[in-house]
Structure formats: structure tokens, C-alpha cells
Design goal:
Structural class of chain B: mainly alpha
Order of helices and strands of chain A: HHHHH
Shape of chain B: globular
Radius of gyration of chain A: 24 Å
Helix content of chain A: 55-70%
Largest sheet of chain A: none
Radius of gyration of chain B: 23 Å
Number of strands of chain B: 2
Shape of chain A: flat
Mean pLDDT of chain B: 86
Number of strands of chain A: 0
Low-confidence stretches of chain B: none
Oligomer: heterodimer
Helix content of chain B: over 70%
Structural class of chain A: mainly alpha
Distance between the termini of chain B: 75 Å
Strand order of the largest sheet of chain B: 1-2
Largest interface: A-B, 76 and 69 residues
Strand content of chain A: under 5%
Largest sheet of chain B: 2 strands, antiparallel
Mean pLDDT of chain A: 84
Chain lengths: 152, 512
């Protein structure tokens, strides 16, 4: 206990903000539901269920904020580099697939994502991405006859 | 239904399942299933999500045969890594690792593998027989259900799934509500109002199951595998068919545990919310309790492999009972399969069995054929799967990434779906790291729209009177269950809170 005299005294900001966002989303659903029209139980409007679900989400979110507001646990260690690379890789895939075709899109998807993995070398990244792009296209584009173009 | 009908339906089912195309897709399914089961870090849910888009080109029966095959095939494969390297391939093989890996250390790896496969097969087969008997019976019973009962069963399923699951129950409930909220997006079927579509045309039909499941389970597993480049090396020569053969004493020792495991699995599997993982833990605990010498457990007791493996396969098959007869899934995986059926235009429920007997009985017959295939795949060909364990992760996750990209894009050939995967993947991963489980979200997302329909219909029937939920006896019983579960959860949270407070005060007092 000497190195950490008051383990529960810290505000758990991470937990509070995540739960708070969920609660806010709940409130947003309630407001949205009200604008869609709640109606009566006998003749429900489009907003009846959203209001109920939003209310539940807001209550549970608030309850988590109260329950987890203090704690000794540190916020989770997120793999930021991997997260960023997966996101960028998928975004590149999304913007490239229609104008540039499947092979470049898959290549950049895999290549950029693998930058997030520090355990592989640049050469490995290059070889793996190129192999998956070519074989993947041959398998699904040619054998499965998916409606995707290899190149632009 | 008369006995003659029953048997003619079974014959019809086997005819369908034994046709060449059905056999082929069954084989593909169970092979992919074993593969994902063997490899730690690729879950069954990720595997079925990745394969779903490619089944859209198939006949619905074939698609379901294949997807279901992945699901129960994973249960067989899951034990391999548990036994050989003490890394469970699937959550349902966690318990198997306790005694299974000890058996490997005692030089009995082959026998442990054989035990797990034969127990899986027995558990699975017995559960399929129970399924054949109970599913139609439950469907007949369910014909009397009105929307009030359906709404209540779904509510019970959701609440049970979020409160029985390990971890923070409040967080599970929050994810369930979030899933329900995502299910709201799209056109409201009763009024035609566009809800929460943010003006996007792509959202008028709602958020697609493929993007939710791939984001939540596919992207999350890729993120988890990245950098985790562990290599699991096992000498494949150490496992030969000869070392797998059990002694007569071994076989005698596993008969009763397998039967007990099967029963536990079947009961737990058919109940909403609990699922196969709970069944394996209960089967293990039961064996420990009935054993003459409980101290053997944890040191390589063969019963500790047999019972949980029988239980998880039995549970997985039994979980199809409520899904197919009522149209109500008990856990996230079943919810996913239900969602897949809906996409294929199949609406499971009491009418499904009567109106589409070929599909229903064909699917069930394929389960049994799939189990036989799995036995062949896993006992004589075990060496192949052992070699698979050494596939490096940094080849595996790029391949999964490719499946996600092409799979989600090829559904509607629209880029928007890829962005949805990114959204669900990143948000789901961050939430999961914060202790919010993904499974209740998927369950809520799939059940939400059905719950809304039944809720509306029930209240329309009662002219807006909420009494309908407690005036009808079955609905009332279900309502009591929901209330009890919620009360028990609340009590648990409050008690834990008090204990923690007391513990902190005691610790602080001690420090002073």
C-alpha cells in the first residue's frame, strides 16, 4: 500500500467519457424519437421504440458513469499504430476499389495495414501484399466471377 | 405430425444433404470450421462473418449448410491447440486445456486428441437426435404464441445474454441497447419514416449485418493478431494414428463423462443467453464433483477432456433448437446465423419447419454428415491440423483483411459499406478494450427490429393495453424471469459495490 496509498481516489476519466458518450447517444435517440413522433401505445409512431431504447441507453450509460467513476485501473492501452494503419488501409481500399480496380486496392489495403505491425520487414510487407492482391483477385475475380475489375 | 411423416421427412432431409452439392459445401464448411478452430485468434464468429458475403451466390440451403458447418466444425478444431500447446483455439476449449495439456505433458497427447474428437462426435450426434425430436415439438407448441410471447422471449434472451455473461453486466446491457439502437437505423416498416439515416441512401434498408459483424469481429481480431507474432511449433510426427489409440480402460473411463457432458451441453445450449462456454465449465465442474478422486483433475484426467468436449458440441447443436423452432437465437453466433437466414429469405420459426421441410431436415441431416466428416478430418488427418498451428500470424491477418475488404464490397458493390466496417471495427475495438463485450451488441442489432414488430403487434392486439404482457400466462412467466434477472443483476452490482468500498476502507485503515 505504501507506493499507492489511495488506490480508488483517482477519477477514471476514460471510463466516464466512454459511458458519457453512450449516455449522450441515448439522449440523442430520445430527441430523434420525439421528432419522429411517439404516438400512443395503441397507435405507435416511428419514434416510440427509439425513445424507449434511447432512454434505456441513457440510464445504463449514467449508471456506468457512476459505477466506474473512480478506480485504480488505468485506461486501456490501445494499439494506436495498428488502429491507425488498419483505418488508413481500409479507407484507401474504399477510395481505390472503384476507380483503380481490385489489385491496387487490395495491395494498398494489406500493405498499409501491415505498416502497423512492427514485427515484419518492409520486404515481407511487399511480398505478402503483392501475393494476396494477385491471388485474391484470381480466386474471387476470375474463379468466383465477382464483378470486380483487376485494374482501372 | 405422425411417425410416418417424421421418418419420411428425415429420409427427405438425408436425400438433400447427401446430394453432391450439399456434401461439397458441408465439407467446405467443416474444413473452414476446423481450420479456424485450430488457429487461436480466429474465432468462429469472425470466420462466419468473413464467409457470409460469399454465400450470397449460393442456394439458401447450401449456404446454411456451409455456415453451420463452420460453426460446429470450429468446436472440433478448438481442442487441438488447447491440448497440444495450452492455447485454446476457441473460447469453448478453454476448459479442455486444463487436463488436455497435462495429458500432453504426460506423453498422452494422441490419446487426449482422440478422446476430444470422439467425445465431440458423440456429444454432437446425441444432441442432433434430441434436436430432431424437440425442434418440431417446440415449433408445434410455439404455434400458439402471439406477439406478446415472442416479444417477451426475445427480451428474456437479450437480458439473459447480457446479465449471465462474464464481465460487467452494466456494460453488457449498454452494448445490448447500442445494438438495438443500430437496429433502428433505416425505414420504419410501419410508418415508412426514415429513422437515423442522416440522409444517406445506403442506410434506407438499415445497417447491413455484414458490415456490423465484419467490423465487430473481423477487424477486431486483425487488430488483436497484429504484432502478436507467436509461433506455435509442435512436432507433427509426435502425433500418429498409433499414439492416438486409447486403451480399453480409457474408453471405459470416458463413457459416463461423455453422456453427462452431452446432457449438460444440450440443456445449457438450448437455454437463451448461456451458450457453449458456460456448458463446458459446468461439465468440468460436474466431473470433478462426481469423481472418486477429484485431485486427479488438473493433472491429466481424461474425464476433464471428454466431458467438456462432449458438452460444447452438444450445446452448439442444441442452440439450433430455439433458433429454428422459435426464430429466437440464444447467443451472438446463433443470432448471426439467424440474420444470415433472413438475408437468404428464410424466416426461421414455427412455420419454417412445416413450410420448408426440405431445408429444415436437410440442414439437420447435414449436421450429422458434417460430424462424420469432422471425425474423419480430425482423426486420420490430424497431422495436417497440427502443422497448421505453425502458420505465422503475419500471413494470416493480411488474408483476413482481404476477405473483409472484398467480401463487404462485393455485397452491394458500394464503398459506403467499407466505411461502415471501419466505423464498427474501430468503435467496437475501443469499446471492447474498455470492457464492453461485442456479443450483446450483435444480439440486440438482430433482435431489435423483430422485437419492435412484435411489441407493436402485441399492443395493437390489446388496443394499447400493456396488461397483455402479464395477463397471458406464458408471457407473464417470461416477464417474471426478466424482472428476476434484472433484480439479481442489480443486487449483484450493489453488493459488489459495498464489498469494494469495505475492502478499500479496510486497506486504507491498514495503511494508516
Amino acid at each position: 500500500m505504501s507506493q499507492n496509498p489511495e488506490p480508488e481516489s483517482r477519477l477514471n476519466l476514460w471510463e466516464i467519457s466512454v459511458a458519457g458518450l453512450l449516455a449522450l447517444l441515448g439522449i440523442y435517440l430520445v430527441i430523434g424519437g420525439v421528432t419522429y413522433g411517439v404516438g400512443t401505445p395503441r397507435n405507435m409512431g416511428a419514434g416510440y421504440f427509439p425513445v424507449a431504447i434511447g432512454g434505456a441507453l441513457a440510464i445504463v450509460g449514467l449508471a456506468i458513469m457512476i459505477e466506474a467513476r473512480r478506480g485504480a485501473e488505468a485506461p486501456p492501452r490501445l494499439p494506436w499504430r495498428a488502429l491507425a494503419c488498419v483505418t488508413v488501409g481500409l479507407v484507401l481500399f474504399a477510395v481505390m476499389i472503384t476507380p483503380l480496380g481490385a489489385i491496387p486496392a487490395i495491395f494498398f489495403l494489406v500493405f498499409v495495414t501491415m505498416i502497423g505491425d512492427s514485427s515484419v520487414s518492409w520486404k515481407q510487407r511487399l511480398i505478402i501484399s503483392a501475393t494476396i492482391a494477385v491471388f485474391g483477385y484470381v480466386f474471387f475475380g476470375v474463379l468466383f466471377r465477382l464483378n470486380i475489375a483487376a485494374f482501372w | 405430425m405422425t411417425a410416418v411423416d417424421f421418418f419420411s421427412h428425415i429420409v427427405m432431409g438425408f436425400e438433400r444433404a447427401l446430394s453432391l452439392d450439399a456434401l461439397f459445401y458441408c465439407f467446405v464448411g467443416v474444413t473452414i470450421g476446423t481450420f479456424t478452430g485450430v488457429l487461436p485468434g480466429v474465432g468462429a464468429l469472425a470466420a462466419v462473418s468473413l464467409c457470409l458475403p460469399f454465400t450470397f451466390y449460393l442456394d439458401p440451403t447450401l449456404a446454411m449448410i456451409m455456415l453451420a458447418g463452420i460453426f460446429y466444425g470450429a468446436q472440433y478444431g478448438g481442442a487441438v491447440a488447447s491440448i497440444l500447446v495450452n492455447v485454446p483455439g476457441t473460447p469453448t476449449a478453454v476448459v479442455t486445456a486444463i487436463d488436455g495439456n497435462q495429458m500432453t505433458r504426460n506423453g498422452r497427447a494422441g490419446v487426449a486428441l482422440f478422446t476430444s474428437m470422439i467425445s465431440s462426435f458423440t456429444g454432437g450426434s446425441l444432441a442432433i437426435i434430441m434436436m430432431m425430436l424437440f425442434t418440431p415439438a417446440l415449433a408445434m407448441f410455439a404455434l400458439r404464441f402471439s406477439s406478446a410471447e415472442y416479444f417477451m422471449i426475445m427480451l428474456l434472451g437479450l437480458v439473459a445474454a447480457s446479465t449471465i455473461a462474464p464481465g460487467s453486466q452494466l456494460k453488457s446491457l449498454a452494448m445490448m441497447a447500442l445494438g438495438l439502437a443500430i437496429g433502428l437505423v433505416g425505414t420504419d416498416l410501419n410508418t415508412g419514416t426514415l429513422r437515423f439515416t442522416f440522409g444517406r441512401l445506403e442506410l434506407t434498408d438499415g445497417v447491413s449485418l455484414v458490415s456490423v459483424a465484419m467490423g465487430l469481429f473481423g477487424v477486431a481480431e486483425i487488430l488483436a493478431s497484429m504484432g502478436a507474432s507467436r509461433s506455435l511449433r509442435v512436432d507433427p510426427k509426435s502425433i500418429s494414428l498409433r499414439t492416438m489409440l486409447p486403451t480399453a480402460a480409457d474408453l471405459k473411463a470416458i463413457v459416463k463423462p461423455v453422456l453427462r457432458g452431452t446432457v449438460i451441453g444440450a440443456v445449457i445450449g438450448a437455454l437463451p443467453g448461456s451458450g457453449a462456454v458456460v456448458a463446458t465449465f459446468m461439465a468440468y465442474a460436474t466431473e470433478k464433483r462426481v469423481a472418486k478422486d477429484p485431485s486427479r483433475f488438473g493433472k491429466g484426467a481424461i474425464e476433464g477432456v471428454a466431458a467438456p468436449e462432449a458438452a460444447n458440441n452438444s450445446a452448439v447443436q442444441a442452440a439450433f433448437v430455439p433458433t429454428l423452432s422459435l426464430g429466437i437465437p440464444g447467443d451472438a453466433l446463433m443470432a448471426f446465423l439467424l440474420g444470415a437466414m433472413l438475408i437468404h429469405g428464410i424466416v426461421p420459426g414455427p412455420h419454417f419447419i412445416m413450410e420448408q421441410p426440405t431445408l429444415f431436415w436437410g440442414l439437420i441431416a447435414s449436421f450429422w454428415i458434417g460430424n462424420v466428416m469432422l471425425l474423419v478430418l480430425n482423426i486420420p488427418l490430424i497431422g495436417i491440423w497440427v502443422r497448421m498451428l505453425s502458420i505465422p500470424y503475419n500471413i494470416l491477418y493480411p488474408a483476413m483483411l482481404f476477405f473483409i475488404g472484398i467480401g463487404v464490397y462485393s455485397v452491394h458493390y458500394q464503398v459506403f459499406d467499407v466505411f461502415m466496417v471501419i466505423l464498427f471495427g474501430v468503435v467496437g475495438f475501443v469499446l471492447n478494450k474498455t470492457g464492453y463485450p461485442q456479443a450483446p451488441l450483435l444480439l440486440g442489432f438482430i433482435l431489435g427490429p423483430m422485437m419492435e414488430t412484435h411489441f407493436r403487434r402485441a399492443l395493437l392486439m390489446s388496443r394499447g393495453h400493456f396488461g397483455i404482457f402479464w395477463e397471458r400466462p406464458i408471457s407473464a412467466v417470461l416477464l417474471v424471469c426478466v424482472v428476476l434477472l434484472l433484480a439479481w443483476t442489480l443486487y449483484g452490482i450493489l453488493r459488489e459495490h459495498r464489498n469494494r468500498k469495505a475492502a478499500t476502507e479496510a486497506a486504507l485503515g491498514g495503511a494508516e
